[in-house]
Design goal:
Length: 102
């Protein structure tokens, strides 16, 4: 799988970073029918990561036919991002190896 591709519920989505002109009104956007996630390149790294997680939650909703409103998606994405950022032991590579992060 190419490095700019992620799987959401088994479906490969291409992730592209775009200019402010290409995405003037949002920090990110998912086009589920085209399996495409667009993220604004100018955002700081932490913000891009949080926006990507937000769009992934939208993708899960689409693929699983789960009708969540925008506020619920935003809350879930922000909460999950905080947990993953603040708890290095939650990183998946640690789960596979059983290693603990100091």
């Amino acid at each position: 799988m190419p490095s700019n591709t992620i799987r959401i519920c088994g479906v490969a989505y291409r992730v592209v970073f775009v200019t402010d002109e290409e995405l003037p009104d949002d920090a990110g956007q998912i086009q589920s029918r085209h399996c495409l996630i667009r993220i604004r390149r100018s955002a700081p790294n932490d913000r891009r990561a949080e926006v990507l997680l937000h769009e992934i939650v939208h993708g899960i909703c689409y693929e699983c036919h789960l009708p969540l409103d925008e506020q619920t998606v935003a809350t879930l994405a922000a909460g999950l991002y905080g947990v993953l950022r603040d708890n290095p032991v939650m990183r998946f590579e640690n789960m596979r190896t059983g290693e603990e992060t100091p």
